[in-house]
Amino acid sequence: MQSFGRWMILAAAAGIPGPHVSAQDMMSHVDLSSPMFASAEMTRAEVAAMLKASPGGADFSGKSLNGLDLSGLDFTNANFRAARMNRTKLSGAKLDGAVLDQIWALAADFSGASLKKASLFGSQLQEAKCDGADLSGARVTADLSRASLRKAKFAGADLAADMKNQSMGLMRGVLKSADLAGADFEGANLALTDLQFAKFSGANLKNASLAEAEAGGADFRGAILDHTNFNGTDLTSARIDAAQEKAFAGAKNLERAFKE
Description:
Elements: H1 2-13, H2 35-38, H3 44-53, E1 119-124, E2 139-143, E3 239-240, E4 258-259
Parallel strand pairs: 1-2, 3-4
């Protein structure tokens, strides 16, 4: 596919091995201190000017925008495919419908940003700050390990594994050790995702599917569970409310979860 080919070109430029390496397991294969991943080739003023000149959706694909303060800007329908945005500040920015596939946004700040129906395929957002961000209806096969997503909105979002296109390895939402306190996942698809050690305190999982997800060590205490699908979900060492044990019917290793 075209996006994969584009990714392979950028990956080669960054010294990343070929398609046998998962796009979600490449941290050890890049030099994050290099200018490509640590500096910016544009200023905020230049970014704003580009947005003004392209009202239908500006193209920032492949750009290095690391560390810029782009908070509050309107990036509706913009294309950021394969851009580097490590530690970039996008708090309060509007990214509805934006293409954020294969971006590098380590420790970036998306707090309060709107990413409704955005696409984040194979993206790297480890340790990102996304508190209060709105990803309703978004496609998120991104690595959000250790990210802060307190009160973020994922209503109707699709974080499930992409079983049709695995040329880059199994692409799925990864929320390993993420803080999801108070997040809204109502109606979201988290099937086959990696939720190990994630914190779901007060999160809304009504009508969400966590089928076949890896949720070992995850904390579901205080989560809102109503018609939540846990079929095949691995709950080894997970922490759940004893009073809600029935809500986890169909889960794997439920007997090995801590019921409190």
